[in-house]
Amino acid sequence: MSIKVGTRGSKLALAQTKTVCEKLSRLGIEAEQVIINTQGDTTTGVPLHEIGGQGVFVRALDDAILAGEIDFAVHSMKDIPAFRPSGLFTAAVLKRDSPADFLACTGPLETVSVIGTSSTRRRAQLLRDNPDITIKDLRGNVDTRIRKMTLGEYDAIMLAEAGLTRLGISITGKRFPPEKFVPAPNQGTIAVVSRADPSLMEELSTLDHPQTRTDVAIERGAMEQLGGGCFTPLGIYCNTGHLIAEVLSLDGTRTERIETEIKNIEQAREQGRQLHKQARDLIDDAYRKLGMKI
Questions:
Q1: What are the backbone dihedrals phi and psi of residue 149, each rounded to the nearest 5 degrees, phi first?
Q2: What is the pLDDT of residues 43-80, one digit of tens each?
Q3: Which terminus has fewer CB within 10 Å in the chain: N or C?
């Protein structure tokens, strides 16, 4: 049986899709790859929050599934918005790779003064750690970001460690522990999204890693209640039920944080609601400063 899998055309997206296809092939399921361009790939000159956040990498693939052009799609799960169209199902969540951020650089870490990232979360966390550094916007795929750094536009750039691993890239730099630099919800996780077809979902579910699915569901439960949209610097990370979540001011000078053990999704949602109350002024301030520009 051959089924169609949709993917973005970046090297990282293709590497992730190759991993999924190889796993399916070992189970006797062959998948035909279909490359689909997304707004996030074609609009690279502005920060993500100005074009709709991480969801811009997902919408075109969602539409292709619902239109019957492909059977399923492979995503970095952190790109998938909290609220999803009806008719779609996350059929599998693969075992999580590293959730950590990685600071890649060309010279000694102590000489880094200009860092490239367009993530409001990473910007705020970096400024919290060192308010004297300069943060410059940086978009594009991993190769583009590294090339801009090697050309001297930045002393260092922020990347997801999982992406470097999947691409087989070894580069000088520093890993930031996720317990301190709390990552984006679901960072390091690959998701397989299909149409809500029972037979297709059953086939794809063989790739599912139950503990990872539970952890990322807890992160998403907290995220849904916390809100904040694509403007607010926030990180959410769960490891075998241990949840850490934080909201920062845009300049990194203030942080509201929770850390607790979670047994079920409702507890995660309650923690999200509590953190939202604690950080309401930070969320509102981020929207006023960034949301009103769009």
A1: -70, -45
A2: 444 444 443 444 567 888 999 999 999 999 999 999 88
A3: N
Q: Cα(220)–Cα(156) distance, rounded to whole angstroms?
A: 30
- Residue 81 — pLDDT band, cuts 50, 70, 90? confident
Strand 2-7 with 30-35, pairing: parallel
Tokens of 251: 């300049």
CB 227 within 8 A of CB 131: no
Class of domain 103-176: alpha beta
DSSP assignment of 260-271: EE--SHHHHHHH
pLDDT in tens, 146-203: 999 999 999 999 999 999 999 999 999 999 999 999 999 999 999 999 999 999 999 9
Q: Which of 135, 294, 161 is nearest to 229 (CA)?
A: 294
Q: Write out the DSSP string of 95-149.
A: PP----EEEEESS-GGG--EEE---HHHHHHHHHH-TTSEEE---S-HHHHHHHH
Q: Looking up tokens 């079920």, which residue turns up?
A: 264
The answer to whether residues 16 and 190 touch, using CB atoms and an 8 Å cutoff, is yes
Structure tokens at 3: 């089924």
The kind and range of the H/E element at 24 are helix 11-26
Which one of the listed residues 41, 62, 71, 79 is annotated catalytic? 79
* Number of helices followed by number of strands (H, E) in the chain: 10, 13
**Distance (Å, rounded) from C-alpha 294 to C-alpha 53?**
12
Residue 197 annotated among the catalytic residues of the structure: no
81 versus 199: the higher-pLDDT residue is 199
Tell me the pairing of strands 72-76 and 88-93: unpaired
pTM of the model: 0.89
